[in-house]
Probable periplasmic serine endoprotease DegP-like (Ancylobacter defluvii), 500 residues
Amino acid sequence: MSAPHRGAALSTLSLAAMLGLSLLFGAAAPAIAAATKGPDTVADTAARVMDAVVNISTSQTVAPSRSVPTPELPPGSPFEEFFEEFFKRRQQQGEENGGRPRRVSSLGSGFVIDPTGFIVTNNHVIADADEIYANFADGSKLKAELVGRDTKVDLALLKVTPPEGKTLTSVKFGDSDVLRVGDWVMAIGNPFGLGGTLTVGVISARNRDINSGPYDNFLQTDAAINRGNSGGPLFDMDGNVIGINTAIISPSGGSIGIGFAVPANTAVPVIAQLKEFGETRRGWIGVRIQQVTDEIAESLSLGKTRGALVGSVTDDGPAAKGGIKAGDVIVKFDGKDVKDMRALPIIVADTPVDKQVEVVVVRRGKEETLKLAVGRLDENDKPADSEAPASPDKPAPDATTTTKLMGMEIAELTPELRTRFKLKDDAKGVVIVAVQPSTPAADRGLVAGNLILEVNQEATGTPKDVENRIATLKKDGRRSALLMIGDADGQVRFTALPVD
């Protein structure tokens, strides 16, 4: 799936490809307008904040394009002479231009958050720029220096030096968590390089994941956002910045009423770290997590689908030192509810490094409160991974004694099977030697060579152990069994299978 537009740097995204819909109209789709009457006026609010919004112009040096080699054609081809003349002419033109690097420029938006000259924008607006300038509403232009950037949330902090005796107009961040779907907002930016432009709309949705990074929780708005608006502020009706406009979905590059903004409450700690350290310092606890499905929630007696299921724990990491184990479901972190898997990396990342926090986990159907010290994330690492990819399926050898259960054939781990599936010497569990097609086990990605390490958080060493656990679950009226699955690389994940 293609990513939404990020300013002028990205190619046009097909709305049909993004949403799986067909475009029914041959003409350009009209912009989505608010169906209800908006505020009587936003003129007073706009007048207070407009001067704090700036146009960001950048320039960079681009190396000359390399000449295209003349295609090889069979001797005597009727096109041989034509292509030789064409490419000879192209080479001469390049030599006449001196083969010199060329300068390219781009435009975006930003806003002043401190009268001393600190400006917030998107990282993609200033990425790879040699020079950055902030153009103000009064026509003045100041050179900006990059203080720091964060590629994961797509934010950058710039600094300009105001002329002596001049105080810059600035704006303040608001609380994006109090926004509701339907609240009115206004966007100010530099669409298509036109200069300061204001549009009004509503919050269309919250916590949108557009697959642009590990911390996606965008605000969605129908306020018109176009190329060049990137990095500009999204205001509430009191003039507080509640978002930074970052991306749009559009078949043509123009607004169709689907724009996305980084929430202020996500941006504020990032900006504070960039201002203090010139880099981000995110929290990390060292767990590999996966989504809690309805089946997993039922098998773990969670009551409802919630939390993040711990698949594995990094040795000597903060989570391991705090007592978190594989199979735990983290439902609360530092006083904040973990609604789903995607919420945990965002909460942990916003937690100060070295802070002592309480973590509530569900273990064997009961809540336990643990304590740990948050570590620092290596920015080259992923904050949390999903399920591990499956290994290629392999048929069971004829000599292996197997037990058929839940769409699988399982067997005790023997030296022969360890060799066949390239399992490590210290691998334990019951090996899956075959999976029947079109079964829940196949749908969950289980394949030959996987190991069943636990059934409902009880270790298994033989197929009989698995059978006994399943029989107990059926007797207790449970509909699914939670399996801890290991692979040849030692990666662990959980999956729930129906016991019928």
Observations:
- The chain has eleven helices and 27 strands.
